[in-house]
Design brief:
Elements: E1 6-10, H1 15-20, H2 22-31, E2 36-41, E3 57-60, H3 68-80, E4 86-89, H4 96-102, E5 107-111, H5 115-120, E6 123-125, H6 133-141, E7 165-169, H7 174-178, H8 187-199, E8 203-206, H9 213-222, E9 231-233, H10 241-250, E10 253-257, H11 260-267, E11 271-275, H12 281-284, E12 291-294, H13 322-326
Parallel strand pairs: 1-2, 1-4, 2-3, 4-5, 5-6, 7-8, 7-10, 8-9, 10-11, 11-12
Helix pairs in contact: 2-6, 8-9
Amino acid sequence: MKNFKNILLINFGGIGDEILFLPVIQALRKTYPSSKITLCLEGRSKAFVNLTTLLDNFFCINIKTKNKYIELLKLYFRALFGEYDLILSSGGNSLISVLLFLTGIKTRIGYKTSGLSEKLLTYPVALNKNQYAARMYFDLVKPVTDTEFELPVINVDETEKIKNSVLIHPGVSAMSVSKSIIKTLSPKMWADLIKRILKSGKKVYLAGGPDDNECISIIREELNESDLTNFVDMFGQTKNIYDLAKLIKQAEVLICSDSAPMHMGVALNTKTIAIFGPTDNRKLLVESENFIAVHNNVDCRPCLWDKRQVTCKSLECLNISADDIIRYI
């Protein structure tokens, strides 16, 4: 198998997308242990690099701005003058193959999205979206590695599990909120779930990011003093994504929405119960007894991304009760 000294990987998206991309990085590091691996990602996801030791370098390109073409030009020049001998991109746009070709990098890997991509890419890979997204990304690396697919793995310090603990993370990404895409339960429903779990004798930890402030505030208001035995409010205590990763690793069970913490739970091998509404759990959560998708089996789901770009008004898919969730703990 050919040796690659300098590898450039391009994967745009949120932190969850970067975690799903980890099997590609893991396979390349295993196959080419002495290679220098650089990842190009969006600025909003740069905290991801604190979760893995497999990268040698990274840089950010912000393609979701008014200056996206200037940003892509920056990417082009970074690739052109970076002395890379392998470039791999997860982008599904048909023009990605043109960008990769123009860099002059000898080995170019991307998805086969058009007849042009078949001619311009060294390895045009069939894009199969009807599978777990981490496997979809892993298809890209198959032409240059013989390693088998492995689940994403996050690197955090070893820590003991907190006995009888359940970590609740109700938030979703800031981008989802800004686009009014609803993928999680209402704060009152989360509060009801917390009360039910506490009554069962479990110790509940509540966490969230800065964007979850409103949701967390309502949850707090719904909880009475009598509810707070064995309740630990960790909101604001996790200062960065690494702190959150350590907390997820300590928990016996993580309950969250379809969001980055869900992917972190998988990558940390913590039992994860994920709430799914309009998105497709089959594509976003690996099938396993340890990773459980909870959803309402209405005929219209999943719809988000495949059939529509915003959530509907009825949200019947999120008609999920505490009983539906608790039975998996």
